[in-house]
Amino acid sequence: MTDENFDVQGFARDIHVLLVLATLRNGPKHGYQIALDVETDSNGLFQFRHGTLYPILHRLEAEGFIDGSWSKEGGGRRKKVYALTAGGRAHLEGRRAHVGEVVSRLLHLISGPGEAPA
Amino acid sequence: MTDENFDVQGFARDIHVLLVLATLRNGPKHGYQIALDVETDSNGLFQFRHGTLYPILHRLEAEGFIDGSWSKEGGGRRKKVYALTAGGRAHLEGRRAHVGEVVSRLLHLISGPGEAPA
DNA sequence: TAGAGATATATAGAGCGCCGATATAAAGAC
DNA sequence: GTCTTTATATCGGCGCTCTATATATCTCTA
Question: Out of A53, A107, B31, B61, which could bridge A117 as a Cys pair, Cβ 3.0 to 4.6 Å?
Fold first, then answer.
C-alpha cells in the first residue's frame, strides 16, 4: 500500500490543506476565523499568513473540496463562509492517512537504535 | 518546550537533512551511496534527486554537520566521503525531536473525533 | 576494442508555493 | 473623528526542489 512516491513539496502543501479542512469539520467558517482557530487550537504552533491562506481557500474551492458563499447579514462586513463538501471530507481522510503513514515511516527511518519511533 | 514556531519550508528541508544525517549514523558514505541507501531503506518511498542531494551535502558541510574528504583509492573514480560530526549528531537528535513533536501535534489536530492519532 | 550503461559529482535554470507588503473596506472603541 | 480590529485579496521576492546538462571513470558485453 501507499506505493505512491513521496513528494516533498506536495507534503508541505498538504499540511496547510489538512489544517484548513480539519478545522471546517467542526462547521462552516470564513477564512479569517479559520486562521484564528488553527492558531488557537495549536497553541500558536501552526499559523496562517493571509497571503498563504486565501490562495489556498480559492484553490480548494476550485477543486470542489470546500464550498464558499458570501454572507450578507445586515449588509455588514462581507464574509465568505466555507463549508466542507463530501469530496473535501473524503480528501481529508485520504490525505490524513497518507501523511500518517509517511510520517510513521520517516520517524522509523531517522530514529536511533535505542529510541522507539512512537 | 518547542515554542519554536512552525516553518513549512524549513520542515520540508528538514526531512531531507534528517534522512542524510540518519544514514550517516551507520558510518561514512559518499553522496551517491547516501541516495541509494535512503531509497533502499525506505523501500523506495524516499528518494534523492542528484540536483537536490549535492547542494544539501555542500550546505551541511559548510555548517559543520558533516565532514567531507576526497578518497583516492588507486586514482580511480573520485568519491567524496562524508562523515557525521559531533555537531551533526547533535543537530540530528535535536531536529528529530522537533519534527517528532510537530508531527505528533499535527496528527492530533487533524485526527477525527473517533480516530486515535497514534 | 568499442559502445552502452552504471557510477560519481556538480551546477544552472525552471517551477512552485510560502511569506511580507500593500490595498481596500467596514465595524467598533474612545 | 481617528485608531484598531475585522475581513478579503493580490503581487513580488525568496527559498527549495526538480529537470536537464556537463564531466569523468569504471565495468560489462558484443
Answer: A107
**A111 in contact with chain B, both atoms CB, cutoff 8 A:** yes
Residue B67's pLDDT is 97
Q: Side chain identity at A67, as an amino acid letter?
A: D
The total of structural domains in chain A comes to 1
Asked if residue A100 belongs to a domain, the reply is yes
Is the residue at B46 inside a domain? yes
pLDDT digits (tens, 9 = 90+) for A62-97: 999 999 999 876 556 889 999 999 999 999 999 999
The spacing between the Cα labelled CA in A25 and the C1' in D9, in angstroms, equals: 25
Instruction: Return the pLDDT at A67.
Output: 97
Cell matching residue B37 = 541507501
**Side chain identity at residue A48, one-letter code:** F
Establish if B16 belongs to a structural domain.
Answer: yes
- Select the residue from A110, A111, A115 to test the B interface by mutation, using most B Cβ atoms within 10 A: A110
Q: Is the pLDDT of residue A117 over 60?
A: no
Q: What is the residue range of B88's domain?
A: 8-110
**CATH code where residue B74 lies:** 1.10.10.10
Contact B13, A76 (CB under 8 A): no
Percent of chain B with pLDDT over 90: 77
Whether residue A107 lies within 8 A of chain B, CB to CB, comes out as yes
- Within a domain: B38: yes
Q: Report the amino acid identity of residue B35.
A: A
CB-closest option in A16, A41, A107 to B109: A41
DSSP class of residue A73? S
What is the C-alpha separation between B31 and B58, in angstroms, rounded? 10
Average pLDDT along chain A: 90
